[in-house]
Amino acid sequence: MEKKVAVVAIGGNSLIKDNAHQSCQDQYLAAKETAKHIVDMIEAGWEVVIGHGNGPQVGFILQKAEIAEKQAGLSMAPLDVCGAQSQGQIGYMLVQNLQNELKTRGINKPVACVLEQTIVDKNDPAFQHPTKPIGGFMTEEEANIKAESDGWTVVEDAGRGWRRVVASPLPMEIVELDAIKALIQAGIVTISIGGGGIPVIKNEDGSLEGVSAVIDKDFGNSLLARKINADLLLISTAVEKVAINYGTPEQKWLDKMTLDEAKAYLKEGKHFKSGSMAPKIQACIWFLEAGGKQALITNPENIGRALRGETGTMITAA
Ligand code: ADP
Ligand code: MG
């Protein structure tokens, strides 16, 4: 029997609803809710591979590390290790909630989380121009010390203080791809590509090495969807549908777009905000250009309805 495989990229709001709900307990409850919607998909016959964002979680890990360094002299973990930590904690919450929900419904299906590394090109131009602010604000003096001692790139952030910036290179290869494929084949609900993956580079001798960078989770999940020839790339975010002329009086919510329309809108530059919706549309475009049939963008509570064609924005190859 041919399996229908969906790559489901879940956004920050599936884990942290708002600023008042950032505790571990709140994140667990948010994951529990998202798990219900994903098990609905499983009941509807989908094999799912789940990826997730990790921006706020890595932010918290860094914040704690900064305080611990200042107050107790504990050394800070490099960014790739912070990414690995976030995959563990988020993966755990998703795995357990999916297991509980499957059990409640009497579905006998195993769940597993794969710690995943994503290879980026060490010559990616993003490394020459790091743009992604990360961690807390510093004084100019603190920033200079960090630049000197840890090689950080630091910038002055609009009069608010100094911040570390890191590169956001494009994901090129998924190190654990074969393991992920084997899990899907075995019918195991798989969680992977957390935060786009732990960024690593491949050295001349083939060895891998972590780098201080961040990868866009929508790009990372799009890459996985292409590599496994997924039937669907589902991006679960904070909005029910995608709009054109977003945030203007001409705003129009879309039920569907073709690949060509999506490319034209993205090129116009005014429809999808950079850093939020634009990378999601780009992620869908790359998936469809590589032969994917359909990409869907909606919010967690509408996943079921959107899959039945009742809401969400469906992007198709033609
Ligand atoms: P995630 O954590 O899921 O990656 P983001 O905040 O990065 O979420 O992106 C989703 C957000 O993009 C929405 O909440 C919405 O505010 C914003 N957005 C920007 N442009 C659009 C658009 N054209 N249509 C719908 N939402 C948009
Ligand atoms: Mg985002």
Automatic annotation (TrEMBL):
Family note: Belongs to the carbamate kinase family.
CDD domains the UniProt entry points to: AAK_CK
The name this protein goes by in its record: Carbamate kinase
Claim: Cell inner membrane is one of the keywords in the record: no
NCBIfam families: arcC, PRK12352.1
InterPro entries for this protein: AceGlu_kinase-like_sf, Asp/Glu/Uridylate_kinase, Carb_kinase
Reactions listed under catalytic activity: hydrogencarbonate + NH4(+) + ATP = carbamoyl phosphate + ADP + H2O + H(+)
Any one of the GO BP annotations: L-arginine deiminase pathway
Keywords: Kinase, Transferase
GO CC terms in record: cytosol
SUPFAM superfamilies for the chain: Carbamate kinase-like
Keyword Kinase found: yes
Domain Aspartate/glutamate/uridylate kinase: 4-299
The organism's place on the tree of life at top rank: Bacteria
UniProt-recorded Gene Ontology molecular function terms: carbamate kinase activity
